[in-house]
Amino acid sequence: MADEGDKSEKLITPKENPTLNSEERQSSAHLEGDRAGQLLEQGIVQQQTGNFARAIDSLQQARDFYHHLQDNLAEATAWYYLGLAYYALGDYPQTIESARSSLSLAQSRSEPRPIGQVFSLLGNAYRHLDDYDKAIAFQKKSLKIFLDLKDRAGAMAALNNLGLAYKARGQHEDAISCQKRALMFARSLDDRQTAGQILKNLGNTYYALGNYREAIAYYEQRLELARELEEDRVSLQILRNLGNASYTLGDYRQAIAYAQKRLALARQLADSRSEEQSLGSLGVAYDAIGDYEQAIKYYEQRLNLARELGDRRVEKQAIGSLRTACYALGDYAKIARYQGEE
User: Fold this and answer.
1) Would you list the DSSP string of 268-334?
2) What is the model's pLDDT at position 254?
3) pTM for the whole structure
4) Does residue 329 or residue 248 have the better pLDDT?
5) Taking a C-beta distance cutoff of 8 angstroms, is the pair 142, 116 a contact?
């Protein structure tokens, strides 16, 4: 059993030493401030690079140092990044607790920008908890602060997040209005990463509305940007969305074109799951135009890949699709063969 003393060494808890004279205390406070700054910077980097458990440990230590030093603004920053780390882990109640602690400290200093950031974090956390009224209220507060500050980047983020909250509540037109305003800010800032996220959000919102042509228009813009930024994984996802939207519109030839591009990219990236999905999409689209021979070709490739992956569920789906396509062709010998393989 591990020594309990070992556990206490993992967390440094700053405590005032009453035996120090005033000069020594000043020096000690300076050292604590340096250490707190190092821990805060370290925690932020860890949070931003996805090392959330270590980020939480570093940020908690920084928070405790700053609390001891009575540096409210720095402590608020530590609480905020703790909230971001918990948010990334999907721990939304803990996100809210951290964000509210940050908010209380930031408000005590009347610092609008940190307050706006915390409002946005709270709004996102409440959205994930399906509390859309609070989510929208906090995002509106965040937006007002950043607009008053003429902070385009902050306003852009708040508008995008507000759009997501409206979409989650089913207010799609309000969501689109916010996302279009956010896109204008992103383009004015030449922030292509955020512009790409917003374009995808707009495509998703129009798709949810059943406006597939508008969805395709925004997905196409997102695909072009993904290619410019060499975001192959994003391209795989957007090509799938484009294929689904085209298929839903009954534009099967276009759906085939998107699925073929996705298949080629999936093979280039050795992404077996995306390859399997693309093969299925191609089979379904060729089925829809009555080209059963081509449909069978892609269903057979999907079946073989499913067996390589050991995916019994997809294997059964592919066999079912093959039997249906063979029946349409009148190829009863193949039907019997596939029935025997189930």
Assistant:
1) HTT-HHHHHHHHHHHHHHHHHTT-HHHHHHHHHHHHHHHHHHT-HHHHHHHHHHHHHHHHHHT-HHH
2) 98
3) 0.80
4) 248
5) yes
3: three-class secondary structure by DSSP: coil
- Express each pLDDT in 236-255 by its tens digit: 999 999 999 999 999 999 99
Residue 253 · residue 289 · CB < 8 Å: yes
Total residue length of the chain: 342
The residue whose two tokens read 């458990």 is: 53
From CA 225, how far away is CA 234, in angstroms rounded?
Answer: 10
| Greatest extent of the chain over all pairs of C-alpha atoms, in Å | 97
Query: Cβ distance 72 to 56 under 8 Å?
Result: no
Q: Is 310 left (phi over 0), alpha (psi -120 to 50) or beta?
A: left
Q: Tell me which residue of 126, 146, 145 sits closest to 135, measured CA to CA.
A: 126
At residue 337, does pLDDT exceed 80?
no
CB distance 164 to 143 below 8 Å: no
- Which pLDDT band holds residue 335 (cuts at 50, 70, 90)? confident
DSSP label at residue 14: -
Q: Which residue has tokens 């007002």?
A: 144
Phi, psi (degrees; rounded to nearest 5) at 109: -105, 0
Please tell me the distance from the alpha carbon of residue 243 to that of residue 92, in angstroms, as a whole number: 34
For the chain, the structural domain boundaries read 27-89
Distance, in Å, from the CA atom of 266 to the CA atom of 285, rounded to the nearest integer, reads 18
Q: Please name the amino acid found at residue 243.
A: G
Please indicate whether residue 111 or residue 16 has the higher confidence score (pLDDT). 111
Q: Are 255 and 278 in contact (CB under 8 A)?
A: no
